[in-house]
Every structure is written in structure tokens, then in C-alpha cells.
Amino acid sequence: MDVPEYTVVQGLPTPQQYHDLRKLANLTPPNRTMMLEAVPKALANSFACFLAYERKYMLDDTTPSPNQEPVAMGRLLGDGALFLQLCDVAVHPGHQGKGIGKRIMQALVGYIDENAPHAYVSLVAEPLGQMLYPRFGFEDVKPSIGMFRCTPIQSNPDFRKLREEKAAGMLRSTAVRPE
């Protein structure tokens, strides 16, 4: 898909750009401690990362102008051969619905096909992305289920409360109603 007003280039966002894109795209942004310690290390250890920029502000086809902010990103993690995880696909809300997410996905899948064609690529799809990923060959893992472990998130009282509310709502919606 060609979206001429944007260009997608391989590169890493700054930790602040990473934070801001995740927050704007309604993904959980890293907290202050993570921004100082974990985010720089995580970005540096990416297998691949692609960023989208508005073409009109680019210096050339691959060079954003100074202080130009990316409008989208997508990242791959993993061992580079057998196992990869696709993550951080985020598009700035002011640029959504223009095919940029598809362009980021094309870049990521193309990179996988070229550099790790035997890899098992997994992802956790947010509700908005659940329609996008199957277009690129991703399938539900049922009967398996996805799981996570992240002590800072799981120990947060707000997170636990939200999980309990969700579980209670799911139980109510699946309960057998008398006729």
C-alpha cells in the first residue's frame, strides 16, 4: 500500500518518542523509572524497528529533519532466527486511518521474511489491532492462550481492580439466564 504523504524508515525512536507514541496510541506508556532504565536498553536491543514520518518534513527519503517526530512505529524483538515478538505498533491518532499501520506492518513482515524466514513470530493484539494482524498472516493461537508476567503492573492496585471488574463483568455476561 502506497501512502505518498508518509515514508517508513528503519530506525529507533528516542525513549521520549517511544513513550509519547505509545501514550497517544492508547497503549500503556512506560513509567518514569522505566524511561530512565529499561526503555533505552529495550530500544537498543530491538531486532528491528520501523518509524513513519510525514514526507513533507523529511530532508530526503530516509532522513527526518531535526526535531521531526515519528507519527508511527513498530518493533521486533527476539533471537533473530527462531523466535520473534512483534510489538509497539502504534500510530499517532492524528494520522490513523491513512494506511500507516499497514505500511509499518509491511515493513516488519518484509524484514522478517528476509532476515528470519523460519521464525515463529508472536504478538499480543490490542483490540484495535485485532483486525489488522490477520491481513499479514497472523492467526489466533487457540487453544493456547496468551499470558504475561510483569510485577510492576500486576502489583498496581488499579490494575488489580480493573482485572477484577473485567472478570466480574465477563462472569455476568456469560451466566445462564433463566427463561
UniProtKB/TrEMBL annotation:
N-acetyltransferase domain location: 19-169
GO biological process entries: UDP-N-acetylglucosamine biosynthetic process
A Pfam family matched in the record: Acetyltransf_7
UniProt cross-references to InterPro entries, sorted A to Z: Acetyltransferase_Butenolide, Acyl_CoA_acyltransferase, GNAT_dom
SUPFAM superfamilies referenced in this protein's UniProt entry, alphabetically: Acyl-CoA N-acyltransferases (Nat)
Record's keyword terms, sorted: Transferase
Single Gene Ontology MF annotation: acyltransferase activity, transferring groups other than amino-acyl groups
PANTHER family, per database record: FAMILY N-ACETYLTRANSFERASE, PUTATIVE (AFU_ORTHOLOGUE AFUA_6G03350)-RELATED
Protein name listed in UniProt: Acetyltransferase, GNAT family
Organism for this UniProt entry: Trematosphaeria pertusa
